Amino acid sequence: MGRFEGQTVLVTGATGGMGRRHVHAFHREGAAVVIAARDQAAGVALAEQLGERALAVRLDVTDEQHWSAAVAASEQRFGPLSVLVANAGVQHPPTLLEDADRSLWDTVTAVNVTGTALGIRAVAPSMRRGGGGVIVTVASTMAHGGTAAFGPYVAAKWAVRGLTRTAALELGRDGVRVVSLTPGVVATPLITEPLAEGVPAIAEVFDPEPFAVPRMGDPDEISRALLFLASPDAAFITGSELVVDGGLLLGPALPA
């Protein structure tokens, strides 16, 4: 029996490089998975691949009505939600703050911050009805410092950390844990493919050699950390962050 047998897990950004891995990971552990993504066709294809314990819903995380519909569809098919993985997020090409258009700021904060907040608000009543649950937000190592030319993204992910801690205080007595996952540089299309035409992919300029684990992360390593945070093994953890970055935030390691 899997760790999430009988539970319903909603993953946002579920058809992307990381989200798809999360969906597969929870499904392998016995969960009913709700594949929430703007690209409904890709979501439906993934749900058909997984079978009866999978449901695809169209979800723009910045749209309150989409959230209401997604939660209602999830409950109608599988019952109250057990886990929300607020995975949907957007990055942007390197841009100095003084050169960033207002529209760029609005888009990045709308998806990464407002989308996460709306998700917490939408799933909390369902989790109460089910006797509790777990909300996992996704931050970034950029949310533990400043990174030149990525101001909107840095600010948004710092805000996600604050939302996580606040929600943990507000929902804890309802049996809902709220935790945050902080990935480092992971080999997903967000890292391996250019963010814009004429801009090198992050993987082309990132050098992991100085760090304790001198490589990029594998997406499945992030999914395994996520499964732990959402599982009963982490029942005494809330309002906290699990950093999975190969030692990136520690700084350069001593040579062997």
UniProtKB/TrEMBL annotation:
This is 3-oxoacyl-[acyl-carrier protein] reductase. Transmembrane segments: none annotated. Its EC number is 1.1.1.100. PANTHER family: DEHYDROGENASES, SHORT CHAIN, ESTRADIOL 17-BETA-DEHYDROGENASE 8-RELATED. GO terms for molecular function: 3-oxoacyl-[acyl-carrier-protein] reductase (NADPH) activity. The keyword Lipoprotein does not apply. Belongs to the short-chain dehydrogenases/reductases (SDR) family. It holds the Pfam family adh_short_C2. It is an enzyme of class 1 (oxidoreductase). Keywords: Oxidoreductase. The keyword Oxidoreductase applies. It comes from the Bacteria.
